[in-house]
């Protein structure tokens, strides 16, 4: 069994005006790359600040490597963070910025310069050592911030939306860079982001938060295919939620009655008739066909939106519900999907995911 | 046509007023400096010829030399202490929330607004009762009480530009709050600290009423001038005046150089009617 | 694996936990106290205590040239009912009021020219030129005016050359205002220039595009948004002129005396500290009232209505 390295134990943070983190339990394993996601204001950044000791919890505890962090000030934790604003020191040169944590540790001048230069070299900034921060590009500053956080060789690196200020091209390059660093260093990365693509590309596990609570923890694919509740399903996007109630069913299957009709979905356990039974069907699992009398739901194409090489088709169903369906360009052309076109939607019942019953 | 003429006349009047005003403000300073080189005993027109006589005379006057030395000592002390206290006050205002913060800030900010006659008299009355009358250190201490207000204002303005993340970032990287203050906040405030040093020195160097009240036998240069002015016409006054003026203008210009005070940054302001 | 062995392993491998530093420096309460106490003490001893003591002294007595603690109202009644004080008070208010009006009338158009007519470079230069006199040798500049305006001075020498007899320039209300404007104009202009530079220019351009004449733009757009700055300029000018000692001393030879002159004279003649303190405290009360009035004017009619509701 993997070793939990950072443990959040009923961690709670209340501000005078709002309750930012509500009694959270989470175990982060040593060497893990964990991403914390959620809409803004969900408490993800507060959680990171609590781990770093920049905010005092109002309840619960944080243990790092088994030791309680209660009463340990930020500067004695060695939980360096890469800030969204980068927070580089504008009055110090690049190499002085990177050497700053070593200076705080009272490492000798020659030694700390040597180690700072090594890290700059490692991040491809060797020639920039004597520059001013103001002379660097956004991507270069990003690397300085990372080098500065890693120079003390910490066992954990905290990242607070580190790539949000970069353009799309640089973001992808920095993702690769972060991935490589994580692999080489083998330390724990705790990565706060609101960008699903970053979390999916980088993380071993993702944590979905909303309103100060953890909604789901799991591998990215699991969270995507098997959301724990309606919030996660909606937050992950590209999921269509159908609300309904249990009608009965057989072994491993449940019959769900809804405004759109009756559907069969895989179910681990039976539910009593009348119990709420909501399920989701991913946008890329839906089949479209010209309108027919066969099985499926009828709808009208509302519009289309490009997402990379695929398009999202928005379809209005009777009763005002809206479905999102993801299709390749050639399929769209084959079906001649233009706004106003009537279509029939269907899916393999095995691909529907029944949301667990709320506790 | 009529409109253009009116506009032109109005423009002319505007620039004329501004020009007259600057002449009004510059005249006294120029008079002091120009007539310090006048050979006449009484400064008037016609100009009595160029002379360095009075400048030499002040160098030979031991009272003026002592007063100058006193002014330099008091000015330097005030500059250092007011900058330190002003930084502490500005940083407290920037970083912390505490009860009675407004009274605390007012206690620092208000002194320059109290007329120096009243403040000087009050300081003399109180400080002489606790045995601090007539000492150069007391003059300096009183000047600090006034100059700290300006120092706090300048440094607080600079702290507005300090990113809220910078100090937490330093703590996060292993700096105690004290080290963060020393290694991050102080270097960041450096231009403002230099500016407040020079400005505090200028404030002290020009102050005469409080120095006159509490200084006793220890005269600073402006007090010496005040005493000279109340005596007979003395051509040395212009020469000392020129020296004092040059020093205080230099201090203020140095202070300005480091604050970068600008009245708004906008593109070409002339809308061009 | 137990928690303890995890710790050992982790610290051996990663050195994640720092050497414990001095906790004192990290304690959240110590640093602000260390920073705040010296400031507090300094301002308390050298600013607040003298002013408090000033109020206390107004109730003390002078016996045989020595100041003695007591609680008498004699000083207050003597000063407040003396015609010398009353005349000086009226005179000082009149003088400071005149200076305030003059400073506003002169500074406003000049500040307007600087803020709206000059280009950025010239404006910065003008601002620098205005800051210098605020902090440099007011006393010397008044002395310079004395030289310029005196009967044998520069202006009279020039006038004499064209046959105009010596003009009594020095010693009157005009010369007093010259001195007080030397003190107040730079500050008044600085406040107004900074306030005007802060006005949203799009407002002005919008008004001009709607065909507003300059005068209407000033009256309806610029003046209302400058209300607090104008109030600040007025109170600052009044405050400076009201408390000034140097201009009355050198430009009018202390005749008639202003309150500041009266204070110094009262202290000098027979150590009448309590009575001088009464004058000082009265002046402070007066200034507090003016500051309050300034605040009230700054808020404007609409804001006042709002507050009243």
TrEMBL record, chain A:
GO MF terms on file?
A: ABC-type transporter activity; ATP binding; ATP hydrolysis activity
Residue span(s) of domain ABC transporter: 6-236
Q: Which UniProt keywords apply?
A: ATP-binding, Nucleotide-binding, Transport
Localization per record: Cell inner membrane
List, alphabetically, the InterPro entries matched: AAA+_ATPase, ABC_SmlMolc_Importer, ABC_transporter-like_ATP-bd, ABC_transporter-like_CS, Mo/tungstate-bd_C_term_dom, P-loop_NTPase, Transp-assoc_OB_typ2
Topology in the lipid bilayer is annotated as: Peripheral membrane protein
Q: Mind telling me which SUPFAM superfamilies this protein's record contains?
A: MOP-like, P-loop containing nucleoside triphosphate hydrolases
By its UniProt entry, which Gene3D superfamilies does this protein fall under?
A: 2.40.50.100, P-loop containing nucleotide triphosphate hydrolases
Per the record, what is one GO cellular component? ATP-binding cassette (ABC) transporter complex
Tell me its family.
Belongs to the ABC transporter superfamily.
Kindly provide the name given to this protein in its UniProt entry. Spermidine/putrescine transport system ATP-binding protein
Automatic annotation (TrEMBL), chain B:
Q: Which GO terms describe its cellular component?
A: plasma membrane
CDD domains on file? TM_PBP2 (cd06261)
The way it spans or sits in the membrane comes to: Multi-pass membrane protein
Name the Pfam families on file.
BPD_transp_1
Q: What is its main location?
A: membrane
Residue ranges constituting the ABC transmembrane type-1 domain according to the UniProt record: 68-255
Give its localization: Cell membrane
- Is Membrane among the key words of this record? yes
The answer, when asked if Cell membrane is one of the entry's keywords, is: yes
User: What GO biological process terms does the UniProt entry carry, in alphabetical order?
Assistant: transmembrane transport
Q: Which UniProt keywords apply?
A: Cell membrane, Membrane, Transmembrane, Transmembrane helix, Transport
Its transmembrane ranges are 12-37, 72-92, 104-126, 138-157, 169-186, 192-217, 237-258
The family annotation for this protein states: Belongs to the binding-protein-dependent transport system permease family. CysTW subfamily.
Q: Which PANTHER family match?
A: PUTRESCINE TRANSPORT SYSTEM PERMEASE PROTEIN POTI
Q: What is this protein called?
A: Spermidine/putrescine transport system permease protein
- Naturally occurring in which organism (per UniProt): Ancylobacter tetraedralis
Classification from the root reads: Bacteria, Pseudomonadati, Pseudomonadota, Alphaproteobacteria, Hyphomicrobiales
TrEMBL record, chain C:
Under which name does UniProt file this protein? Answer: ABC-type spermidine/putrescine transport system permease subunit I
Membrane-protein topology: Multi-pass membrane protein
- Which species expresses this protein natively? Ancylobacter tetraedralis
PROSITE patterns the record matches: ABC_TM1 (PS50928)
Question: What keywords does the record list, in alphabetical order?
Answer: Cell membrane, Membrane, Transmembrane, Transmembrane helix, Transport
Provide the transmembrane region boundaries.
40-60, 88-113, 125-143, 180-199, 220-242, 276-298
State the InterPro entries in the record.
MetI-like, MetI-like_sf
Q: One Pfam match, by short name?
A: BPD_transp_1
Is Transmembrane found in the keyword set? yes
Q: What is the lineage of its organism?
A: Bacteria, Pseudomonadati, Pseudomonadota, Alphaproteobacteria, Hyphomicrobiales
Q: Which family does it belong to?
A: Belongs to the binding-protein-dependent transport system permease family. CysTW subfamily.
**Iron-sulfur keyword on record:** no
Q: Where in the cell is it found?
A: Cell membrane
Family annotation (Gene3D superfamilies): MetI-like
- Domain ABC transmembrane type-1, chain residue ranges per copy: 89-294
Its GO biological process terms? transmembrane transport
Q: Which GO terms describe its cellular component?
A: plasma membrane
Q: Record's superkingdom?
A: Bacteria
